[in-house]
Amino acid sequence: MSGALVYFVVLTVLAIATPYYSEHPVLLALVGSLTFLSGGARVIAAWYLLQTWAAAPNRARLVFFCTIYATFVVWGTFCGWTLHLYGGQWTAMFLLLTTAALAGGASSSLAPSIRLAFCCLTILVLPTAIFAVSLGGKRYVGLGFVTALYLGFLLAQARGNWREFWTASVAAEREKIRGSAERRRAEMERASLVAAIEQTAEEIVITHVDGSLRYCNPSFEHGSGYSRSEVVGRNPRFLKSGKHDDAFYRELWDTITKGEAWAGSFTNRRKDGSLYEVEGSISPIFNEKRITGFVSARHDVTQRLKAEEALRKSEERFSKAFRSSPVAITICALSDGRYLDVNDAFLEMTGYNRINIVGRTSMEVGLWVEPDLQGAMIRQLQEGGRVSRLRMKFRTATGHVREGDVSAERIELDGETCVLAITEDMTNALKLEAQLLQAQKMEAVGRLAGGIAHDFNNLLGVIMGYTQLTRDHLSSDEPSVKNLDRVTKAAERAAALTRQLLAFSRQQVFFPRVLDLNRVVNEANQMLQRIVGEDISISFKPDESLDPVLADEGQIEQILMNLAVNSRDAMPKGGSIFVETSHSELDDTYAREHPPSKPGRYVTLSFSDTGCGMDRETMAHVFEPFYTTKEPGKGTGLGLSTVYGIVEQSQGCVCVYSEPAKGTTFKIHFPRISQPAENVEPLGRSQENSEVAGSGETILVVEDDESLRQFTVSILSSAGYRVLEAESAEVAMRFAHDSNEPIDLLLTDVIMPAISGGELSTCMQELRPGLKTLFMSGYAPELIARHGGIPRPVDLIEKPFSSRSLLVRVHSILYNSPDIALKLPA
Question: How many Cα atoms sit within 13 Å of 348 on the Cβ side?
Fold first, then answer.
């Protein structure tokens, strides 16, 4: 561009100093325009060269130099034509030649080769030399010669130094272009940097070396609430929140003033007084190893910290819930089944320590008793993602096998597919369920047996009564007497079986007394020895300080007898029986493990033998009525069920311990009481009054069973009593209301349809004050007590009864003979 300006100046001088403008204005204007256009084209080519130098350098050079040499062609032609027109004007010609030579020399130095430089000089200088020689004068020849010499000089100079000229010239031009480009690039980069800082979400703060702010970006303004004009020039102390002590800021300042970068988080205060958390770094700014300021880049982490705190609290709550949950929970990897975590309930349930579980698989621990079932659960999880209440068996650390329900679900934890499983130990629940079913079954069988036994008692009473009446009317030498005796014995055996059924169903009438259990067992030893035989020894080890119990002595004897018979059958080749009494206190754990025990203080009767023992299946049914392992015809199956019923009726409990070939032990627990033992003989055992005949007293007999009622009326009538009979309570009350006949004794059944014997007795007391009452029943006191109106104590005769026992009881009540009434439970 500078060469073009020189040419333009020369043209201007020619126009002013010579008649060129007036004589050849068109030529001057044309050359000036072409020179100016070639200069402009060169500028454009230089710009193009700058833009495309790295991408297409050869093409860029060609364009650039074409613009230069186009200028040379125009100017060389113009110089030669000028000499032709104005040969006598030396000043103009010298100026033209000098300018041409200088421009040609400068331009030739830019030529990339000697050939190109020669062509350039020839095009520029040769027209001037030719026109000078053609004028013919010495002056012109001399001028042409000088021009030729200068041309040779330039060529020689270009020949020897063309590479250096080219390199230096191109380098200078390139530096000029590059410098311009670098400046523009730097300006663009600076603008981009400023825009990035202004638009970044990070808070950018630049301070002087003394800490005063000299710049802050919009993010800082948005985060702090301060505008740029409010903070520039101020020390950033106004951002202090009070959450950090002086030592914190002193350490920060010491770090950055030593030329090191500081990174961390701190709490700042906004303009409105609220606090916010920031995290970032502060770095020193250096200028030739000297710190000129500091730059801080930080971002607001308040919401992130809140989210992290919420997550931490949530994880803490989950961890507490996981650890303290009463339900056993485990987390394991689905891929290999290794336990990642287990809670305390699981460890307590299995008996393992955490170190023995976490990091190991259930197969390695040996937890699952049925591994195939675990494999099925894993497949179901992989297919459906959930398993609900899968019944399984697991083995504890002690080797015990328990049953549980597993519910599991597939979850994602830290990008890994895991299994969250909840295990519920169902062992105790299943035991309780089995016990409940067993109790319900026993209760149902007991109700059935009790109902049958009650009706059978009435029939036996009639059979035994009429048999006795018939026998009393026959002489002892009559052949039929033996037959009647056989009938009586059969009826008595049937009555014994009936009492066993009632004992099992807890409906048997019993006469509880405060007993010394040691005395009862000791007195029964001789009877037991006769039952078991001489090949079986019986040893008794009493606790001399034993507390009394409340029980029926006859039923205690029956318990001992039934257990002795059971032990005898279990020891066909002889053996030993060990009977022992002691005190015991059962806790909740024992009660759970030995149903139907209940916690409390007991007197324990232990009865052991060295017999063949029983397996678990047999023990599960041992107290069921009619269940027996003996051959057909060798057992009724009521012996142990009678023991069970008697103990339950006495508010106690019985447990059995046995293993095959290791004998059997029955532990019977009676509640301890603090009263001293009684020496009263049970009712009806020895009370035999020789005077049982009546003297015409009136007895009202109320019984819904017709045959038993007729038998009772017959006995009382034959004994001299005046007897009135009623088939129901309604008939009896109607008779008492409508008739004025005296009634000395009410003999009534307890349990009857519509109105019970107790309610009848209450109504009769209102109609006939002072009326005495004797109840008849084959049911237990608990069942009798549930029917209203029964006095306490109660006068009761147990069904079936003989004619003699009935007459004795009636006589004792009518004449106030010493007797013992039955005490009903409260």
Answer: 12
From 531, 616, 613, 540, select the one nearest 571 (Cα to Cα).
613
Neighbours of 694 (CB within 10 A): 21
CA 332 to each of CA 318, 352, 408, 419: distance values in angstroms, whole numbers, following the listed order: 17, 16, 11, 5
How many whole angstroms from its chain centre is CA 41?
83
Report d(CA 197, CA 201) in Å as an integer. Answer: 9
Residue 781 amino acid letter: P
Nearest to 339 by CA among 403, 424, 398, 423: 423
Beta carbons within 8 Å of 442's beta carbon, 6+ residues apart: 623, 624, 644
State the Cα torsion 145-149-152-153 to the nearest 10°.
-160
Three-class DSSP labels, 537-596: EEEEECCCCCCCEEECHHHHHHHHHHHHHHHHHHCCCCEEEEEEEEEEEECHHHHHHCCC
The reported pTM is: 0.39
Strand segments, DSSP code E, in 197-344 are 203-208, 213-216, 262-269, 275-286, 291-300, 328-333, 339-342
Q: Is 73 exposed, middle or buried (0-12, 13-18, 19+ CB in 10 A)?
A: middle
- Asked whether the bond before 676 is cis by omega within 30 degrees of 0, the reply is no
Q: Are 451 and 697 in contact (CB under 8 A)?
A: no
Name the pLDDT band for 461 (thresholds 50, 70, 90). Answer: confident
β-strand partners of 293: 208, 285
Q: CA angle, 539 as apex, 535 and 544 as ends, to 5°?
A: 165
Say if residue 820's pLDDT is above 70: no
Interior CA angle at 566 toward 587 and 539, to 5°? 70
Burial letters for 783-806: b for 16+ Cβ neighbours within 10 Å, e otherwise?
bbbebebbeeebbbbbbbbbbebb
Cα separation, 699 vs 691, in Å, equals: 18
Q: Find out whether the peptide bond into 793 is cis, omega within 30 degrees of 0.
A: yes
Residue 440, pLDDT above cutoff 70: no
Rounded (5°) CA angle 589-591-593 = 70
Statement: residue 759 has pLDDT above 50: yes
Sheet holding 745-749, edge to edge: 722-726, 698-702, 745-749, 772-777, 796-798
